[in-house]
Queue: 2 jobs
Job 1
Amino acid sequence: MIQAAAEFIKSRIKVTPRVGIVLGSGLGAFADEVEDAVSISYSEIPGWPQSTAVGHAGKLVIGMVAGVPVAVMAGRAHLYEGYTQAQATFGVRVLKRVGAEAMIFTNAAGGINLNYGQGALVLISDHINLQGSNPLIGPNDESFGPRFPDMSEAYSKAYRAVARECAAAIGISLQEGVYAALTGPSYETPAEIRYLRAIGADLVGMSTVPEVIVANHASMKVLAISCVTNMAAGVLDQKIDHEEVLETGLRVRGAFVQLLKAVLPRM
Ligand code: HPA
């Protein structure tokens, strides 16, 4: 199925994407930045999971951004939608087969670290997988990578250095932190957030980690950036709602687009 999807995409495009980019909740506007774009609806691609989450468009846009051939996934499949690990990571494997060598993952996340504020952009330096599962469970596909892939630099140090330099050059504040992934879809309780803080998490979210594991398995270099759309449960005396998550995504999109455009040519 992965091969069939990759062949289908190849038959439709003019340039081979070098970098795959996954857009998180509220960050879908970046897809409009792609020049000479070929836009393919997920529903057309054999085996590609449809995205049902609000704020996720459900299309693959392939073309040029800042002179770099990219494949932008506007919309991802989450475990909380009922998708399997294989479905949640399908797009990454397909993009590897299409020819991408690196991935940029973006997401909306709750801020656990009290130094963060709503709207902060945070470079993910590492993760804690609390989703109770792993996309590589099952027979190993040696054509992608080894049975026991190393994860000691899951988020490329070199890419992080580039992102920090670019952020400084354009005057965007960029923090760095550890992302904890839970399945959701309920947001965390305040007690869960205290626990996550105690074990070293700065951010919490419901995505990205399966994709990052699969990308590392396939020797793709990874850059990941979270947008702190809300402070995590219990940090502020207010409830979390998805509208707020989407609104914050829209508010930071200018900075976010600028940062990605600066980083891409150096990947
Ligand atoms: N928790 C989990 N996932 C999220 C959050 C949150 O507070 N905000 C955006 N995605």
Job 2
Amino acid sequence: MDFIASDRSCLDWTGDCLIIGLSEESLPLTGILSELNDKVAGMLQTLIDEEEFEAKAGTTAITRLGPDAPVKKIGVVGLGSSDAMELEGLRRGAAIAARAATKAKCRTLGISFPVWNNSQALTAQAITEGMILAMNRDQRFKSEPDKSTNELDQVELLSFAGEDAAIQKAKMICEGVILARELVAAPPNVVTPAKLADTAADLARDYGLKLEVLERDQCEALGMGAYLGVAQASDLPPKFIHLTYSPAETAQRKLAIIGKGLTFDSGGLNLKPSGSGIEMMKIDMGGAAAVLGAAKAIAQLKPDVEVHFISAATENMISGHAMRPGDILTASNGKTIEVNNTDAEGRLTLADALVFTDKLGVDAMINLATLTGACVVALGDDIGALFSQDEDLSGKLTAAAKLSGEKLWQMPMEEKYFEGLKSVVADMKNTGPRAGGSITAALFLKQFVKDTPWAHLDIAGPVWSEKENAYNSPGATGYGVRLLVQWVIDSQS
Ligand code: BES
Ligand code: MG
Ligand code: ZN
């Protein structure tokens, strides 16, 4: 699918399918749109009338034109009210347009959308992202690829001349999102800790990043007892991944992103029962996937920021040498943890990853983790939780969430709840009471951060979606990549 930032307008484009994005306020048709209507012998208005199209967000209609028309088909996509219009509305509208055009068996698409907030560049980027992500289908594990849907060859963004860089940027970001989706969607017998490390090695080779993978003995030497406690039942070796992007010039800022990288979470000896979603626990490396996806995008976008990408990858398994409920582990900052539940393993791996990252001297670090079921109960499938006591950092992440369309909701870090993690024998337990489970998880992580500004994102809900949405087919969403990239890019200013 090629994208062109075109100097042609909807009046002079020719091809298979022309789709116009309409806000509610742009009806009835005026100006250039009524000119277009004349050009297509009134068929645009007829389509709107017959379909009772009101330009509500998420709606679309398409019709065939006569043999003399400049385009074979013309369609409309509703963008809702222009007052409430966010970039995300255009991203979704573009996705719906691409789906409608492919369903109508078109190969070339001309798209005419309003400009959001006077920014041609952000609008072109959002349209391109929506389309690429909507068209992405993962057939790697099908023996017979499904050829029933048509593919678009060429998309022209009408009246977006000069926005080639915005299209390029969208493509790079989407490559990162698609990598994250593919890592999450792949089964746990394919995406192992070693596979995550190999993926990091591919990125390092392709884009000239620096890579360090710490093996078990090196992690041992660093005292990473919490991480290695989780890893000890697996037959697969753990891989502590540290990938670094450095800009050509001296970096203005240094940032770090850490991802929970459990390639499978059985629960350990506190084994997840059937019905608990154990068969979905391949998604427990969604944080690491977002981190590697962001690395792929950032390495191509080349911002003036040094970025560290980190994941303490392993499985959480059962065996005769598994950590036991009740074991006491010592993390690399010397703190001792009574493991009262082996299924709260993500925070154990993150503990050592946070201690490691804290020592890099970065300006800010954030971790992404499919950490708690409690968070899914609280915020559902579409929204990630943001935990941070740093107002500047949480403000920046909230702003990045808004622009990227990846939703975040800030949760309280209620210090008092740490009492729930008090242990009689060790410095802390790894789990507290059921109530407020995502908050105690965040407070646990906080014990492993000294003074680097830090945020924890619990992404257990949005990494996977069973429902189809505008630009996501059911399955892995690649959540986090666009948000992370936006945050890194914005940190330059
Ligand atoms: N990986 C899970 C959390 C999870 C649940 C991710 C649902 C994605 C979807 C995590 O390791 C876990 O098992 N958490 C436990 C914590 C509990 C033992 C305190 C949970 O949420 O039940
Ligand atoms: Mg678990
Ligand atoms: Zn887990």
